[in-house]
Amino acid sequence: MSATTLTPDMAAAERPPSPWPRRLADAGMRCLAILIFIAIWSVVSLGNQYLWKFFNPLLLPTPIDVVRAGIEAVQTGELQANIVASMRRVIQGFGIAAIAGIVVGLAVGTWRPLEKLVEPMIELLRPIPPLAFLPMMVLWFGIGEMSKIAFIAYAAFFPVFTTTVEGIKFVDPVLVRAASSLGASRMDLFRHVILPAATPSIITGLRLGFGLSFFVIVAAEFIAADSGLGYMINDARTFFLVSQMLLGAVVIGLIGFVVNILLRGVEGWLLRWRVATRG
C-alpha cells in the first residue's frame, strides 16, 4: 500500500479555520448594537425636546449631555474618585464571595453528606432578596466600609456557589468512569476531570456574581456612603442633575461590560484544551 502524499492544499484544508474573522464579526455586531442603542436614545431625547414634548426634556438628556457631564467630572477628579471607591468595595466583597462560593461549592458538590447539611440553609436564604439584609448589615457592621463589603459578599456568594455545585453535578459520568477505569485517583479525578468540566459553570457564576455586586453596591452607597458611583447618582438626584445620574449608570455599565469581556477571555484561556479537542 502506497503512502498518501499530503500536499500543502490538503494540509491547509485540514487545519481548523482561524477564529479571528468570527471574533471580529462578533465584535462588530456588539459595537453595532451599542451604536443603535445610542442612536435610539438620541432620537427619543431630541424628538421629545423639539417635537413631541411628551415629558420634561430635562428628564432625558442626550448622550452628548452625558458626555459633557463626564468631561466635567473627570476634570474635577470627582468621577475617578468615585470609580475607585466603588471598585475597591466591589473587588473586596466580590473576592470574598468568589473564594467562598467556589470553595464551599466544590466541597458540597463532591461530598454528599455536606450537601445534605448545607443545602437546607442555602435554600432558605437564597430566595430572600439581598436588599432585605442591607439595613441589618448597617446595624451589624456600622456605616463604614465593612457593611458594604459584607453586603456585596453576601449577595454575590449565591450565584457563584450555585453554579459551582451545578457544574460539578452535571459532569458527564462517562468521563468519570473512564478515568477511574484507567486508574485515576480521587485527586486525579477532581483535578483532571471534574474541575475542568465544571469550569464553564464556575465562570458563569463569577460573571453573574460580579454583575450582582455592582447592583447591590449602588443600593448600599445610596444609604450610607460619602463616595462611590451610587453616592454620585444619589447626590445628583438630590440636585436634579439627570445628566450626572445617567453618567453614573453608564460608567457602571461600561465597567461591567469590560469585566465580562475579561472573564470571557479567562474562560477561553482556561478551556483552550476544549477548543483544541474540537479542532
Structure at a glance:
With 279 residues, the chain is mainly α. It is 81% helix and 0% strand. The chain is globular.
Q: Keywords for this structure?
A:
single chain, globular, 0% strand, 279 residues, mainly alpha, MetI-like fold
What does this structure look like?
This protein has 279 residues and is mainly α. It has a single domain (66-278), classed as Orthogonal Bundle (MetI-like fold). It is built from twelve helices and no strands. It has helices at residues 8-14, 20-52, 63-76, 78-110, 112-125, 134-141, 145-169, 173-181, 186-223, 229-238, 242-270, 272-278. Helix 4 runs parallel beside helix 7 (145-169), helix 4 (78-110) packs antiparallel against helix 9 and helix 8 (173-181) runs antiparallel to helix 9. The longest helix is centred in the C-terminal third of the chain and has 38 residues, at 186-223. The model has no long low-confidence stretch (mean pLDDT 85).
